[in-house]
Design brief:
With about 180 residues, the protein is α+β, with helices and mostly antiparallel strands. It is about 20% helix and about 45% strand.
Length: about 180
């Protein structure tokens, strides 16, 4: 009887480890980038939206480069989203109180992608907190839109160009 229990435990352990290894082999990263402008003269303390241009996903090519297809993709999550001030070069995020980014497509509702509240930064780079939303239908689409909503805590006197770098973790089924 003990032999049977040990054999069952060993088999289950091997199965669990095998599944984990297969998932790691079928997991890869897709990167996207966008730029948006925070205009000068915005009211302080009020959430103001900024829409980015449509972002082409190129997901079909990315899936093919990773030996899979869109119909085999089972899970897409945002792994990291970093925003960087690209112009003016000496500007920092000290003017910003909070920022929330949302993703949508023409066929899919808008959901929150990442955020950062109570910003107290003297850097020109911010790493946002990502949500745990499943993003399969957004990344499989030919393009998606991002909308940023920011609360300014001090007056800005010139337009600020912000670049957003996104990294999505994609897991696909083997068949």
């Amino acid at each position: 009887m003990k032999k049977y229990i040990y054999t069952t435990i060993a088999t289950l352990s091997l199965f669990i480890v095998s599944c984990s290894v297969v998932d790691q082999l079928l997991t890869f990263t897709i990167s996207n980038q966008t730029t948006f402008t925070i205009p000068s003269g915005l009211p302080v303390g009020i959430a103001v939206p900024f829409v980015t241009p449509d972002i082409t996903t190129n997901s079909s090519a990315e899936f093919e480069n990773n030996n899979t297809k869109a119909n085999l993709v089972k899970d897409v999550r945002l792994k990291e989203l970093t925003v960087t001030i690209s112009d003016p070069a000496n500007e920092t995020f000290s003017f910003l109180k909070s920022i929330h980014l949302y993703i949508s497509t023409d066929a899919n509702d808008e959901i929150e992608l990442a955020y950062k509240d109570d910003i107290n930064s003297t850097s020109n780079i911010l790493t946002l907190i990502t949500t745990a939303e499943k993003l399969d239908k957004y990344i499989k689409a030919p393009s998606f839109k991002l909308r940023a909503e920011a609360v300014i805590k001090e007056t800005i006197t010139q337009d600020i160009t912000v670049k957003g770098d996104m990294k999505f973790r994609v897991t696909a089924d083997p068949f």
